[in-house]
Amino acid sequence: MKWAYSIQQKFKAAVLLAIVCVIILITNLLGRYHMNELSDSFSSVYKDRLVAERYIFMLSDHLYQKKLAFDNRSELTDSDFRSGIDSHNEAISGLLLFYEKTFLTEEEAAYLQDFKANVTALRDLELQYLQSPDGEAKQTATRTLFNERFTLASANLRQLSQIQVVEGKMLNDQSQCIFYGSSLLTNFEMVILFCIAIILQVIVAASQPAISRTWQQGNLN
Predict the structure, then answer these.
(1) Which of 2, 139, 144, 153 has the greatest CB tally within 10 Å of its CB?
(2) Proportion of the chain in helix, strand, coil states, percent, rounded to 5
(3) Closest to 199 (Cα-Cα) out of 70, 15, 2, 5
(4) How many angstroms separate the CA atoms of 17 and 36, rounded?
(5) Residue 147 is part of a domain; what is its CATH number?
(6) CA angle 129, 133, 134 (to 5 degrees)
(7) CB burial class (10 A; 0-12, 13-18, 19+) of residue 102?
(8) 196-204 long-range CB contacts below 8 Å, 24 or more apart?
(9) Is 148 contained in some domain?
(10) What domain count does the chain have?
(11) Comparing C-alpha atoms, which of 55, 88, 84 is closest to residue 160?
(12) Is position 175 within any domain?
């Protein structure tokens, strides 16, 4: 019966070792999955939020510079005024193309469309202003409409900026959850491995007296 008992103990040990291997494999796969999620989360914070916030800041600056040009129209030559406006418009168009390549939430896409509509309206008003003779009432009315559109466009940018803050916080919270989940999984793995190690020790300890007794009986004979 010695060989049967030995096989039984080896079988138990083999099963426990197999369980250890399965646990390590599963936790390893889950760990990789969590790391990929964490990497995507950090990448999104940078590419879709920090970079987008930079675009918003630059859009706001170019919009404000155009407003200053209109407010100080009398201090600028016609050539400087036109070239300055055209330069800011080109910069705004380029920034919008880059901004649209970032990940946009449904709300963010709606505000961005509103901003683009207001920017288009501003350009139409700029053309009307430039085509009107200096000092005409029509030019004054156009500047009033321009100021109103400028206020709306600025409000769009503030709304877009607020979205970056909210979405950035959500991504940060998501990263924290992934980190804590990964830590919990690691602790669970350690507890399971510790329990299995104890069980293996018990199996080994239980098998030693039986083997010793068998050896002693053989010597007596």
Answers:
(1) 153
(2) 95, 0, 5
(3) 15
(4) 29
(5) 1.20.120.1730
(6) 85
(7) middle
(8) 196/16, 196/19, 196/20, 199/16, 200/13, 200/16, 203/9, 203/12, 203/13, 203/16, 204/9, 204/13
(9) yes
(10) 1
(11) 55
(12) yes
* Structural domain that includes position 73: 15-216
**CA–CA distance, 92 with 119 (Å, rounded to integer):** 9
List the structure tokens of 32.
Answer: 């990789």
**CA-CA distance, 68 to 147, in Å (whole number)?**
11
pLDDT tens digits for range 184-215: 767 777 777 777 777 667 666 665 554 444 44
Contact 118, 84 (CB under 8 A): no
**Model-level pTM?**
0.66
Express each pLDDT in 100-156 by its tens digit. 988 888 999 999 999 999 999 999 998 888 887 766 666 788 888 999 999 999 999
